[in-house]
Amino acid sequence: MALPETLAELRDCIATQHEQLTGRLRDAARYLIDNPHEIALNTVAELGKRSSIAPTAYIRLAQALGFAGFKDLQRLFRAPLQQAADTHSERIRHYGGETLLEDPSDVGGILREFSQANIVSLEHLAEGGEQANIEAAIAHLQGARTTFVIGMRRAFPVAAYLSYALSRVGRRTVHISGAGGTLPEQVSAIADDDLLIAVSFPPYANDTVEACRQARQAGVTLVAITDSVLSPIGQMADTVIEVNDAELLGFRSLTASFCIAQTLAMGLAFSEWQSDSNFSHDRLKDIDC
């Protein structure tokens, strides 16, 4: 296998070799993916302290992925970084790299740079790398008795929209909100012929992860919309749709995530229109999604 030369290639390499890695090396790989800034800017000893993972685990991981040592792997994380000329500058993360925001107090600058970062993430989606996974998710939707959708914290609006859109195209859908502390009861209502779609991104809502674990134990099919196949819900899922939205400090976009939700709903609607002679194409004109 060729040595990864970009962060995107490194993520693919980790995903490919994930099953061959030991549990500790998987933990180190997960930390690499979730904390690119820390990987780029800290020594392996400091990373060990910050992550509570032995420094030797990072060294062994680098070697397992084909690098001579950790420093060679670390160069991939340092390459996208641009040197900040202003001590008040911040970086906007997006798929494939970073964008430097020189003055975070400049609202116009935030709009321009964040919009551009979102464009990069959408262009990545448009390349079609997730098409097979989206098609697999639509097949799961078609075969499910009822579709349950869960997404907490920042993922909540994506889950709410997706459940609404699926309902509008004729799919029996339940939005799991956990209102009134009823999350366990809502999840327990899912049967093994139903489908659970879970939406979650770092730092991953504990309620979503627990709901997925409970559903999987009951034999429920799981589709995950998340940032990586190595995420807590990605590792449990039958199908994973990877999304990498733009991020500035704790503020993360949902642009690409909503694009996935719309594609799932529209893909399901048109698939059923083509396969069902009684389905009216005119009905989609008033779908209001």
UniProtKB/TrEMBL annotation:
Every copy of the SIS domain together lies at 137-279
Single GO biological process annotation from the record: carbohydrate derivative metabolic process
Q: Which residues form a coiled coil?
A: none
* InterPro entries, per the entry: Homeodomain-like_sf (IPR009057), HTH_RpiR (IPR000281), RpiR-like (IPR047640), RpiR-like_SIS (IPR035472), SIS_dom (IPR001347), SIS_dom_sf (IPR046348), WH-like_DNA-bd_sf (IPR036388)
The keyword Cell membrane belongs to this UniProt entry's keyword annotation: no
What SUPFAM superfamilies has UniProt attached to this entry?
Homeodomain-like, SIS domain
- Specify the species: Pseudomonas vancouverensis
Q: What are the protein's UniProt keywords?
A: DNA-binding, Transcription, Transcription regulation
One Gene Ontology term of the molecular function aspect: DNA binding
Q: What is this protein called?
A: MurR/RpiR family transcriptional regulator
Residue span(s) of domain HTH rpiR-type = 8-84
Q: Respond yes or no to whether keyword Disulfide bond is given for this record.
A: no
